[in-house]
Structures are given as C-alpha cells and as structure tokens.
Design a protein that fits this description.
The protein has helices at 20-30, 50-62, 68-82, 85-91, 94-100, 111-128, 131-137, 147-157, 179-189, 213-222, 232-245, 254-262, 266-276, and strands at residues 105-106, 109-110. 40% of the residues are buried. It is mainly α. It is built from 13 helices and two strands; from the N terminus they run αααααββαααααααα. It has two domains: 6-35 and 209-284; 36-201. 49% of the residues lie in helices and 1% in strands. Helix 6 (111-128) packs across helix 7 (131-137) and helix 12 (254-262) runs antiparallel to helix 13 (266-276). A two-stranded antiparallel sheet has the order 1-2. A hairpin with a 2-residue loop joins strand 1 and strand 2.
Length: 292
C-alpha cells in the first residue's frame, strides 16, 4: 500500500489552477451543525460522554450506506433500544441481544451479524477499556497515516477467521477505501463545529479522507486524483493533495465538500466552484445550464 509520503515531494497540479483559499471560504460558510441533517453524524451529538459516543459512532458509521432515510431510521432504532451504549454493551449478553434484535434487518445486515458485532465490541471494551485504547494499541508514532492502526482495529472487532464477509466493517488490507471507517475516525478524532471528537492520542494529520462517490467525483474534477476507482489508493492520493493546503488536518474540508453532492444542490455546487476559481481563469469544468 502506497504511503502518503511516498510521492517524493511531488505537488498536486490542481492547486495551480484552483484557489486553496476558496476551500476556507466554503468551509467557514458551511461547516456548521445546521447543515448536518440528514447525516448519521447527528446521532453522536446526543452523547456527552466519549465512552458512549465512540460506540454510537461506530454503529452509526457502520450503517452508513444506502438511502439516508433508512440509515437514520435503523441507526435510531438500534440506539434507542440500547440506551447508554457503553453500559448496554458491557451488561447485555448474547441471548438478550438475540431477543432484543430478533428480526432486525438493514440492507445486508442481519440480526445475527448485529448481535455478533455488539458482542465483539464488548470483548474489545473488556480487553482495552475503550475503542479509543484499542485503536491506539495499533498506532505507532512513525506511522504516516492511520491505515496500519485501522487494519489492527478492524481485526480486533472482526477477526478474519470468524467474520471475513462482514457487511459492517471493510477490511483495509483488501484495498477498500474504507469510507465508513474513515468517516468514524473523522468524527471521533477531529473536533470543530461539526465533528464532536472524543478520542485522545491520535493526530488529525494522520487521518485519511472518507472517500465516497461524491468526494471522488469532485476530486477527479479538481484534478486531485486520476484514479477511476474510489479505492484506498485514490483516498491516499486525495489526502496527499489536501495535506498540501492543510498539513495538520487534511480531512478538514470533507464535510463541506460533500454537501453539494449529498444534498443534490446545484447552486451549492456552483458556489463551491466559484470559491475555488482563481483570478487567472475559470474552472475547466462545464457547469450545467439550469435552463436545460
């Protein structure tokens, strides 16, 4: 797997055509909680205690695929049944979980897989004390990104020998962009008006962009990556590009940059490109004619 630092000082040509300052203009305007809904991130705001938030966040991010309405409904259902997440996970055994979530279904996620997932979270909490400490156990100071620690984290939660076909957790070693897991890390490690944070000991500079179709499409338009697949290599490439303009926080712009696509808002997208335009010219992308 290519590390971010492996590009030997090569700069992203995109920033010669686009204005990095425009990213901050867009960020300051839209990186606010009132623009979060509909997004599973909103569930994390319910928990003041990071010990509860880290569990709720892992569940919410793991369910974050498919139609957002269904994501919010199923995540809300599970979290409502749980109550305070940490106490629930530690005190609720497998038979009780099976009764509580009998018949549960979220896309490909079955009740059986959900029960196994919650059981694995319990085992991690019993061994490490928290999901945060479990993640730190796999993180080295010399690691350029969170990728090695993320691989160990997934193995702790979902051992390859027992859940190699999990629909809740992607396996980084297989080359997946691991969008949902990187989204979870963004939520728990960063702290600003949108991301609540809560984890300690992990620098935001090591984060990798949570690469979905919206950010991948935008990144290709901007020239941040030439890769056609939204895989881990593309995520690394895009993260490297954002490191050039925000070295200590390369995923700083992720939330705002994905709003136009997620909300299917043409005006918002056009405003984004307007922010990114330089005095030397206009974007090399043809904007859609709203009258067509």
């Amino acid at each position: 797997m290519e590390a971010i630092g492996d590009r030997s000082g090569k700069s992203c040509a995109a920033w010669h055509r686009w204005s990095p300052e425009g990213l901050d203009v867009f960020y300051k305007k839209y990186n606010k909680r009132r623009y979060v809904h509909p997004d599973p991130l909103e569930f994390l705001y319910r928990y003041d205690d990071a010990a509860d938030r880290e569990i709720a966040g892992l569940i919410a991010s793991s369910f974050a695929y498919g139609r957002v309405k269904q994501i919010l409904a199923k995540t809300g259902l599970v979290l409502e049944k749980m109550g305070p997440p940490r106490d629930f996970v530690l005190k609720t055994g497998t038979p009780a979980l099976e009764r509580l979530f009998a018949g549960f279904k979220h896309r490909l996620v079955t009740a059986e897989e959900l029960v196994f997932f919650l059981g694995r979270i319990r085992k991690v909490l019993e061994k490490y004390g928290s999901l945060n400490e479990c993640f730190l156990a796999g993180l080295k100071k010399t690691d350029d990104t969170v990728l090695p620690a993320l691989t160990e984290f997934v193995e702790a939660l979902c051992p390859a020998h027992s859940c190699s076909r999990s629909t809740l957790l992607s396996r980084p070693e297989k080359g997946s962009a691991c969008k949902r897991l990187n989204l979870y890390l963004r939520w728990m490690i960063r702290k600003d008006d949108v991301d609540p944070g809560g984890w300690k000991g992990v620098s935001p500079k090591k984060l990798i962009v949570p690469l979905d179709t919206h950010l991948h499409s935008l990144s290709r338009d901007l020239g941040l990556t030439g890769r056609k697949q939204a895989d881990m290599k593309a995520a690394i490439e895009i993260t490297h590009a954002f490191r050039e303009v925000s070295p200590d926080d390369p995923v700083r712009y992720d939330f705002t940059l994905t709003r136009p696509g997620i909300q299917n808002d043409r005006e918002l997208r056009d405003f984004l490109y307007q922010c990114l335009e330089t005095k030397e010219g206009t974007p090399p992308i043809k904007k859609e004619n709203k009258n067509e």
